[in-house]
Design brief:
Layout lengths: L2 H9 L4 H10 L19 E4 L21 H17 L6 H10 L13 H14 L12 H12 L7 H5 L3 E3 L6 E12 L5 E11 L3 E3 L1 H12 L2 E2 L1 H16 L3 E10 H4 L10 E8 H4 L1 H11 L2
Parallel strand pairs: 1-3, 3-6
Antiparallel strand pairs: 2-5, 3-4, 4-7, 7-8
The protein binds zinc ion.
Zinc ion binds next to loops.
Length: 298
């Protein structure tokens, strides 16, 4: 495995502090920016991506008057989370036992669809935990539907950056800032398991390598379709772009609406959370940063 693919494949599992270290370890060509990776003029290319998310969500609202057992719900939710995440790690002891008995290739990862039955029964428990009757007509297929929806919301665990970037990194003597703004994203807050969504703008100053434009949106998709916090999402995107094309700098700004703030807690409907990660020239040079922010806020 090349150094690049090793860096990229490790990226998904990095904690916030490890991400910070990855950022600090990144060698941006600070001093040579104006000579080797400098810009011959001040023009910048700006791109906008319109995304269509095919699937519309169902808005099933259930009245809950019965908070029977918070512990049960907590336990069930923990099971659901473990099921979603552990599939990607090597934590499937029971699965491995089954596989070795059946003599199945143990190197092959189980597909996430294989998680459906267990995830569905976890949702059934969740309904009972809420004091609902999972056997009433309206709820009969809800556990399976909810499990499928949750797998979709977290499908980023299935995708790797190296697969997406394969063949999309080009040698190019392009020295203008590349900005793709307003990339829509939908993610799941890992603290409350409710959605947060919004827009991501990414800018980078190439240093002899560029990335296929649509790949920036794919990077956003891979990291947002997981259990996330917005701060980590910004950093993962910035570090992924850095590792992919070693630019003179990367800037990521995310504007997010968090349903856990809107629907509960402070219930501020119009509040938005803005996070940013500025690396390389975007961190060191106020003019470059300002130019990026001006383009993004246009
Ligand atoms: Zn939250």
């Amino acid at each position: 495995m090349s150094k690049l693919s090793r860096q990229l494949s490790d990226l998904s599992d990095l904690s916030a502090s490890e991400l910070n270290e990855a950022i600090d370890d990144t060698n941006f060509p600070h001093t040579n920016v104006t000579t080797q990776c400098g810009r011959s003029n001040n023009s910048s290319k700006i791109y906008e991506i319109i995304q269509n998310d095919g699937e519309s969500s169902e808005n099933d609202i259930t009245d809950i008057n019965n908070h029977s057992s918070l512990n049960d719900i907590t336990e069930t939710t923990t099971k659901i989370i473990n099921g979603l995440i552990n599939n990607n790690n090597n934590n499937n002891n029971s699965n491995n036992n089954i596989k070795s008995t059946l003599n199945i290739d143990t190197n092959k990862k189980p597909t996430r669809e294989a998680l459906l039955p267990e995830l569905s029964s976890s949702y059934r428990l969740l309904l009972s935990g809420l004091g609902e009757d999972p056997t009433r007509q309206g709820l009969l297929k809800t556990p399976e539907r909810a499990a499928k929806a949750m797998l979709f919301f977290t499908k980023g665990y299935d995708q790797s950056i190296e697969d997406v970037l394969n063949g999309a990194i080009f040698d190019e003597n392009h020295d203008e800032m590349v900005v793709v703004k307003d990339i829509e994203f939908f993610s799941m807050c890992e603290h409350h398991l409710v959605p947060f969504y919004g827009r991501v703008s990414i800018g980078y100053l190439p240093c002899n390598k560029i990335l296929g434009l649509s790949k920036l949106a794919r990077i956003v998709e891979i990291f947002s379709r997981r259990l996330q916090v917005q701060e980590r999402l910004s950093k993962q995107i910035a570090v992924a772009v850095t590792h992919a094309v070693q630019p003179a700098g990367v800037a990521v700004v995310i504007e997010g609406v968090h349903m856990c703030m809107v629907m509960r807690g402070v219930q501020k409907i119009n509040s938005k959370t803005v996070t940013s990660t500025m690396l390389g020239v975007f961190r060191d040079d106020p003019k470059t940063r300002e130019e990026f922010l001006n383009l993004v806020n246009k």
